[in-house]
């Protein structure tokens, strides 16, 4: 009879009746009663009142009844902990039952009862079961240890269960081994710091032996464990791969994916020249293809994993394009994933086949799928250059279908094709313009507007087309508004006489009628550019655009490597690391692929320091930039202080502490030879890589101009860059900056196609020329290079200020590192200030803007110090002797025009020097890229006055308006001004003057920029409308 009868009872007083049946003397009646209780419990009825009666039923030899009672106990023990204690004696007794099934059942149930009072009674039975003669009991006990650890980790460690669990890895039964590995892995995941799975070649051999004989889930546990093992060399990696490969033919897709994960990880250690490497690639393809014949849900999981595999090693499936062609009955989620994989596998060899297929998809009825197919055609054009013409032709055919959403998607991708191949396919613009009226989606309208603006000179009625969009400007989305603004400004710069009214109209709409801050900001920028310097505006707006990359949606290489380690898990389906969607310690566990063979660093201990020395200072991975525009008045150039601070404390400084991380990088002593990239700024402690280095006290070298060059240090170790090691230093020779590099290939493959790029930094450091590596870099070969630098790059304040983030690309990958450059390479040759100017400037800077610190172990005379520092463009302005102390007054100038003034005290016979330095805070506040200044201010003046101020304004007023420096300015240098008033010098030593004009004028403080006036004075110009106030 079916068990459904237990769920259909309609009797009243059911609990009472069940109680009576549970206490019946008849075994069958008792079993029926327990089944009814379990049925009630399953449908959500509260039967906890029957707890004592059900527990009494435990005393039976009937295995079925015992299982039912144990099921009830697991459910209600937490709500009835005191009653649950009654069952402990029975559990202990059952753990010694002659029947191994009952012994296993007892220990499993005790592990599932999450009650603290019971766990202490569980220890002794569990210890016996872990050493039970029956493997079924041992494998059940192994899992129970993991459950107990989750309840009370300390108890498990104290009782020595973890050591027993490790011993079970050597068990003769493969299922016991598999469960022991599963339990240890579970515990290790919740405690990442513990080294429970201390795998070695012997234990790996035992796991591989058990792999062939255990169940499919046991195989998955073992394969996942193998994936966390780091082979000592390529031979061991190959041996493991050979023994794992048979799992690829398993019927269970989870086993297949786990085996693929192990092979993908260990392939990193195999040389591509090996015959076995090619064989392995061929063996990986068939199982992945077979997964695509499963149910749609499994296909989707397989496709998400294949997407990762193809990004890492496209050669595995390069001949299997046809299996990814979409079937008519595939669900949409499978279709979209197949499209993605098709694009990744597209190449010159199969592009004709792919395009024909995609064109067919574009006529389907599923709108989302059609859109994706049209976009895929565009991605093919960008990826395979030889197919671009055919792709454009296909897109034009689709536009002719006049299907609205097809036309709009086609226009979006044609815009991308124009970005990739400028001035090549512009003949199609006429066809695109014919469909202008049918565009109703923001992305398509924005793409069409971009095309019209970019090629305005080739479109006769470009102004009419853009004006048609302008009519409903406020109804458009922000994306379209921004694109329309830029397009009309481009049109104005190309055809200024015909479109002046149009550009004034769009600027007015953007700045005065819009409440969108992005649109207003862009409008103001364009207006100011056009009103002040149309030539500069043309250079900015019509600048040559970089070509778009062939693959914009590739996963970042470091993340891809991590996801490869999670093949067959949820992370590989989400394409996100576990930390993105798992809370707690499990999500914090990071995995990475092993380093390639050939790296000089040990694969097992990549961070070991060289023997006999201090730990090597490794450059940090580029940090995530938080608030880069920090508080200027509390900015410290020095890196984090290591060690205890000295006895002397520095005077807090109102401006940037240019001395804290600058001059201290120029002095030090012979007792420390830390690389110049590491610059401790704590006072009273020995300073390495600093002024002492300029005096050749720590083994550096001098350049032609006498400037100190620090020894080369390792910036990017080979273990972090797939075998590429980069060492280097910075130098300044006769006014020219350079980065001196040594590139070393410690991998087993040739490296070529080198390129370098800097991130934005505090002083605009950028390569002045490409990285020239004239010949491919063979394994175990090094090459020395000198990369010229300039300071005209993008500026952004870094922390610390002299932090430089670098990206180096080669044929293998893109690698990132950061280093600290010595500040003295930025000291320019014209940094000697006149004496009167020095005196006036020193007095003008408040005492709170002063830094003072000591430098030890520099046993040089004042003349020697002066000579040495002058070699690095630190100039002595004056020297005097006060109470037996030599006082040197020095100045230096940075490449961005900031002056630093210093006083150096030298006591003859005392190797310690005292440095006192000052920086004008106003110069720092004029650096808009460092997070201050740059906000426009308007001051309207009537003839002969400056705003409403009568008579010469005070210095404080001048500072509140902006830092003025307009000496030697001629009337024709003021935009449109024809009446230059008088100029009265208030602070000639600081270069400040008061200027009044006979005509109304407007004043904009744009901050200090190299080679330009810090103040922009503009009057109405007939060529362009008057600039409005912000």
From TrEMBL:
Annotated compartments: Endomembrane system
Stretches for region Disordered: 584-621
Topology of the protein relative to the lipid bilayer: Peripheral membrane protein
Chain coiled-coil ranges: none
Domain Clathrin adaptor alpha/beta/gamma-adaptin appendage Ig-like subdomain, residue spans: 708-818
GO biological process: intracellular protein transport; vesicle-mediated transport
Keyword Membrane: yes
Domain of life, source organism: Eukaryota
Record InterPro entries: AP_beta (IPR026739), ARM-like (IPR011989), ARM-type_fold (IPR016024), Armadillo (IPR000225), B-adaptin_app_sub_C (IPR015151), Clathrin/coatomer_adapt-like_N (IPR002553), Clathrin_a/b/g-adaptin_app_Ig (IPR008152), Clathrin_app_Ig-like_sf (IPR013041)
Entry keywords, A to Z: Acetylation, Membrane, Protein transport, Transport
Domain Beta-adaptin appendage C-terminal subdomain, chain residue ranges per copy: 827-926
Pfam family for this entry, one: Adaptin_N
GO CC term (a single one): cytoplasmic vesicle
Similarity comment: Belongs to the adaptor complexes large subunit family.
Name this polypeptide is given: Adaptor related protein complex 1 subunit beta 1
Gene: AP1B1
